[in-house]
Amino acid sequence: MKNKNHNLKLMFECFFVFLITALILLILFIINHYAPFGPNTLSALDANIQYRDFYAYFKDVLKGSNNISYYNFLAYGLPASGLAPLPTRTG
Q1: CA 50 to CA 70: how far, in whole Å?
Q2: How far is it, in rounded angstroms, from Cα 29 to Cα 52?
Q3: In Å, what is the CA distance from 55 to each residue of 49, 52, 90?
Q4: How many CB atoms lie within 10 A of CB 66?
Q5: Predicted model pTM
Q6: Which pLDDT value is given to residue 68?
Q7: What is the DSSP string of the chain?
Q8: Domain boundaries, the chain
Q9: How large is the greatest C-alpha to C-alpha distance in the chain, in angstroms?
Q10: How far apart are CA 3 and CA 82, in angstroms?
Q11: pLDDT score recorded for residue 33
Q12: Cβ contacts of 16 within 8 Å, gap of 6 or more
């Protein structure tokens, strides 16, 4: 019986943490006028920045001023291609 009460208490605590987080996000979305669909979503805003950086890099590759391994300084400077990360040197 004690284990069942402990599990129930844990479930309520997890739900409470989820509820507080969801309310904070909802308030921030309302303040910043974010919507689940359309041009003013978090994914649309983030994708705009990432595509702009990638296309600037791709333009440099086509001009010959950069090589094909994509160095993303936002990903700790590790070399990566557009599809999969390249192996890094050890030692």
Answers
A1: 13
A2: 24
A3: 10, 5, 30
A4: 15
A5: 0.47
A6: 67
A7: -HHHHHHHHHHHHHHHHHHHHHHHHHHHHHHHT--SSSSSSHHHHHHHHHHHHHHHHHHHHHHTSS-SSEE-GGGTT-EE-SSSBPPPP--
A8: 1-33, 37-91
A9: 71
A10: 50
A11: 84
A12: none
Q: Interior CA angle at 66 toward 61 and 71, to 5°?
A: 100
Residue with tokens 């309302």: 30
Side-chain half-sphere exposure of 40, counting CA atoms within 13 A: 7
Return averaged pLDDT per consecutive 10 residues of the chain, 91 residues in all: 83 95 91 79 74 80 74 52 51 47
pLDDT at 91: 47
Q: Please state the length of the chain.
A: 91
Tokens in use for 28?
């921030």
| Nearest-angstrom CA–CA distance, 1 and 41 | 46
